[in-house]
Specification:
Length: about 350
């Protein structure tokens, strides 16, 4: 089992440790609900050093990354991030990721921890014919996420760089507490915040510095999941996966069908024929919490399953995402969710469970 550079710090601060994606990671410190509220109201600090970092450089870097990703990296300027997906030929999702564009010849792909080895192999399988160099830098770097309305003020206290220059999905290499880090104005919570990359010793020192600041709450992967769910962000293996396309998941904004990419033909065919399934948001009308894989019923038969479900700590309301037949995906449609031995009524609603607070 692998450990991040911050493992001993997690133990020292009383974190509950679980296995996740081959790593021993903190699931919570003070409690998922308390940590969720801290990110929404103040500032939360996460260890996300288990994520993967893959560097792609060379003359054909833009052409290569554009062929790999559903989104169009050629259309954005340097020092911007692009969300995109790697697809199988049949349109199923290999992974979703953030591409950091340093220049037309220099990209950093930040991939999900559970998929990083698979992603690297998948990328290398398409390398022939492109003048690029591909390197897996995951072992050398750690990553922190600082999220919440107080995040900018906290981080500004550690740097002379004016963070107001970074808008949502911008990034820069900046000095922090005596070392240099790659800092992006981004995150997985729907709040304003930052993702910070650095060499492992520097990440350890920065973590110690940040966790000592009174406004900062240490957070685990448990509230990271409730936060991303409330912000309607997909999770690989739930809303997206090898048998779920980005169009079914409602991620069409990150799919540019006017350019070539792996899996494009399958998506064009699916769009032409009409989607048979869609990921929808559901608001529970009866008491209960819908967990992943619970069956969803309508008209006396199973029409799909829950992909994620939680009671949101800040609202006390219970919601779910579900992959269901498209004929039942209209807003206002009522369905039944099988929760253990009971069936709870739920209604299809829009996915806006939270007003995102990005710095624009």
């Amino acid at each position: 089992m692998q450990k991040t550079v911050l493992y001993e710090e997690h133990l020292r601060h009383g974190a509950k440790i679980v296995e996740f994606a081959g790593y021993l990671m903190p699931i919570e410190y003070s409690g998922i609900a308390q940590e969720h509220r801290a990110v929404r109201e103040e500032c939360g600090l996460f260890d996300v050093s288990h994520m993967g970092e893959i560097k792609i450089t060379g003359k054909d870097a833009t052409r290569f990354v554009n062929y790999l990703l559903t989104n169009d990296v050629a259309a954005v300027k340097p020092n911007k991030m692009v969300y995109g997906l790697l697809l199988k030929e049949d349109g199923g999702v290999v992974d979703d990721l953030m591409a950091y564009k340093f220049s037309d010849e220099d990209y950093l792909l930040v991939v999900n921890a559970a998929n990083k080895d698979k992603d690297f192999d998948w990328i290398m399988a398409y390398r022939d014919g492109f003048m690029v160099e591909v390197k897996d830098l995951s072992a050398d770097y750690g990553q922190l996420a600082l999220q919440g309305p107080l995040a900018a003020g906290v981080l500004q206290g550690l740097t002379d760089y004016r963070l107001e220059n970074l808008k949502a999905f911008d990034f820069a290499v900046i000095p922090l507490a005596g070392s240099e880090f790659l800092v992006s104005r981004s995150g997985y919570t729907g709040e304003d915040g930052f993702e910070i990359y650095g060499f492992n010793p520097d990440i350890l020192a920065l973590f110690k510095r940040l966790q000592a600041i009174p406004e900062v709450t240490l957070c685990g992967l448990g509230c990271r999941d409730t936060l991303r769910f409330e912000a309607a962000m997909p999770l690989y293996g739930h809303e997206i996966g090898p048998d779920i396309t980005p169009l079914e998941a409602g991620l069409g904004f990150a799919v540019k069908l006017d350019k070539e990419f792996v899996g494009r033909d399958a998506l064009l065919a699916a769009k032409r024929d009409g989607l048979k399934r869609k990921v929808v948001a559901l608001e529970l009308l009866d008491r209960g919490i819908a967990r992943a894989d619970y069956p969803i019923e309508a008209d006396g038969r199973i029409i799909g399953h829950v992909t994620t479900g939680y009671m949101i700590p800040t609202t006390g309301k219970s919601y779910a995402f579900g992959l269901i037949e498209s004929t039942y995906a209209a807003l206002g449609t009522e369905v039944l969710i099988h929760i253990r031995k009971n069936k709870a009524k739920a209604r299809v609603r829009d996915k806006k469970l939270l007003d995102k607070k990005y710095f624009k």
